[in-house]
Design a protein that fits this description.
Bound molecules: alpha-D-glucopyranose, calcium ion
Number of strands: 20
Strand content: 15-25%
Shape: globular
Strand order of the largest sheet: 11-10-9-5-2-1-13-12
Structural class: alpha/beta
Largest sheet: 8 strands, parallel
Radius of gyration: 23 Å
């Protein structure tokens, strides 16, 4: 360890479970800030905005991938885990970002894509040369297509390589061959990558597509394979057994029991896992057929997760990420008022919050004509559905509501050209509403979404009940209102959220003690009704 790295570590003292008090911000670097005039965001763009992020009150950043990559899936297809993709900058840029974040008390978490590599990774280039190449067994091969498992991005999950007359398995794109985790050499390679980045001073890892690493595709098993937890425990013992490191796995499939294993407080696996049960309740047959949010089911699902992990695990809290559309377009009307309501709804829960770039200013979906989408997921799905004879209008409706590119349009910094993201044409269109929805103007407006987020983050830091209180629903079958309390021995917090664009009756007087004090609201005057998209937070001292 060189002297510089040592200093960085000293600047970030990490007591056990420090991440339970952290507030994370997810940066999707390609869309955050361009500094070298090529229309795509870069690492220096993140460094440039560290003061803005510190001002927001966040204490950690999750960086989506910036490693060397052919960009078939925007960097989630890595061809060298130890190099920075030139489109994002250099290793020096990354070192500077880590150092400058640490100077501001901000941790850096990087995205570890360990389920698959790029087809251009040297391991795969070797692996497909011959059946007895030393790297062949780094991937998953079959002589005959063993089954008709499908890839998440459409088409078969088995890809034929004529040169060696074999098929390899890919859960995602053919350009993303799955690593063979049953090969101990592969696991050691991954641990070495983790060690490399720990040496650089990063404070944690988000583990991409974690619930598929234990797969047994020859027998049709993709998620939650038989050895999944064994692999995670081995990895944890080898490289994560260190209280200064936070780990969050992506596990779409996890239920509460699974999550208790993943986030066991004994530290045998990870700090927490992103599960998506509450984010899939509005799906129809598929996400592309999403309808309205079934609010009562949503509330009960949140309760299940809050209570289910209260003492026995830990929840990350999130409404958006780079794979999900903008929440206020999806579950509300896109207004600033609804943005504040949804923010209050999730930022007063128990867990570690994640705010996705732009969410804090109320960025909304951007519906585009099909040819303007960059994400291959959209195009694969569009073609597949057209081939099935599904109506164009229905397909486009699903895309406009749920496409991942909705969250990937450039960050809106100012009312300048291209929203201040870049001075040349950005890689994906900027939402034209940037003239009014942008960081610069919201910073000046005390009533902005941005300032509301700041207040909520500050609340989390001053009210321990948000970290340790128990969770209870109020009026659990109320179809319009999400109301809940957080209670510990000393304080009781009551959070009221009207999910409808109309006033709804709610007996505040019955539900709130006289002493309860209104501490934050997106309405000026308290009333007996909950106004459209109202959120109000009350605090009571318990004697
Ligand atoms: C994860 C990422 C997603 C990516 C996929 C394949 O789900 O979040 O963006 O496409 O893995 O790497
Ligand atoms: Ca750039």
């Amino acid at each position: 360890m060189n002297e510089q790295t040592q200093n960085q570590k000293q600047q970030m003292p990490k007591e056990k479970d420090w991440w339970k008090k952290a507030v994370f911000y997810q940066v999707y670097p390609k869309s955050f800030q361009d500094t070298n005039h090529d229309g795509t965001g870069d690492l220096n763009g993140v460094t440039q905005h560290l003061d803005d992020l510190q001002d927001l009150g966040i204490t950690g950043i999750w960086m989506s991938p910036f490693f060397q990559s052919p960009q078939a899936d925007n960097g989630y297809d890595i061809s060298d885990y130890r190099q920075i993709d030139p489109s994002f900058g250099t290793m020096q840029d990354m070192e500077r970002l880590i150092e400058q974040a640490h100077e501001r008390g901000i941790s850096i978490v990087i995205d570890l894509v360990l389920n698959h590599t790029s087809e251009k990774h040297p391991w795969f280039l070797e692996a497909k040369k011959s059946r007895n190449n030393p790297y062949h067994d780094y991937y998953i091969w079959q002589d005959k297509k063993p089954n008709d498992m499908g890839s998440i991005f459409g088409g078969s999950a088995w890809q034929y390589v004529p040169e060696i007359d074999q098929y390899y398995f890919h859960q995602y794109l053919p350009a993303q061959p799955d690593l063979n985790w049953s090969n101990p050499k592969v696991r050691q390679e991954i641990y070495d990558v983790v060690r490399f980045w720990k040496e650089k001073g990063v404070n944690g890892f988000r583990l991409d597509a974690l619930d598929v690493i234990g797969k047994d595709p020859a027998n049709g098993i993709a998620i939650q394979g038989p050895k999944l937890h064994e692999y995670i425990r081995e990895m944890s013992a080898e490289v994560f057994d260190d209280p200064s490191i936070v780990t969050m796995g992506e596990a779409w499939s996890a239920d509460v029991d699974e999550a208790r294993l993943y986030s066991n407080p004994d530290g045998s696996e990870l700090s927490m896992v992103f599960q998506f049960e509450q984010m899939m309740l509005d799906y129809g047959k598929e996400k592309w057929d999403a309808g309205p949010l079934p609010l009562v089911t949503f509330k009960k699902t949140i309760r299940k997760w809050q209570n289910g992990l209260q003492e026995t695990g830990w929840n990350p809290l999130f409404l958006e990420n780079h794979d999900l559309p903008r929440i206020i377009s999806r579950w509300a009307d896109g207004s600033a008022k609804s943005a504040k309501m949804l923010a209050a709804m999730y930022l007063c829960l128990q867990g570690t919050p994640f705010i996705y770039q732009g969410q804090e200013i109320g960025m909304v979906n951007l519906p585009l004509p099909i040819e303007e989408y960059a994400d291959m997921e959209v195009h694969n799905m569009y073609n597949a559905r057209r081939a099935l004879g599904i109506e164009e209008e229905h397909i486009m409706k699903g895309i406009h509501k749920m496409a991942r590119d909705n969250a990937r349009t450039p960050m809106q910094w100012s009312d300048q050209e291209n929203a201040g993201f870049s001075d040349v044409k950005p890689w994906l269109p900027v939402n034209p509403n940037y003239k009014t929805i942008n960081v610069q103007s919201e910073r000046k407006d005390p009533d902005s979404v941005l300032n509301f987020y700041k207040k909520l983050i500050a609340l989390r830091n001053t009210l321990p009940v948000i970290e340790d209180g128990t969770f209870d629903l109020i009026e659990e079958d109320n179809p319009d209102v999400f109301a809940y309390t957080r209670t510990n021995g000393r304080q009781k917090l009551t959070i009221l959220c009207n999910f409808r664009k109309k006033p709804v009756p709610f007996e505040k007087k019955k539900q709130l003690n006289q002493e309860a004090e209104l501490i934050l609201s997106n309405e000026d005057l308290p009333s007996d009704l909950l106004r459209p998209y109202e959120t109000s937070i009350y605090l009571e001292d318990l004697k």
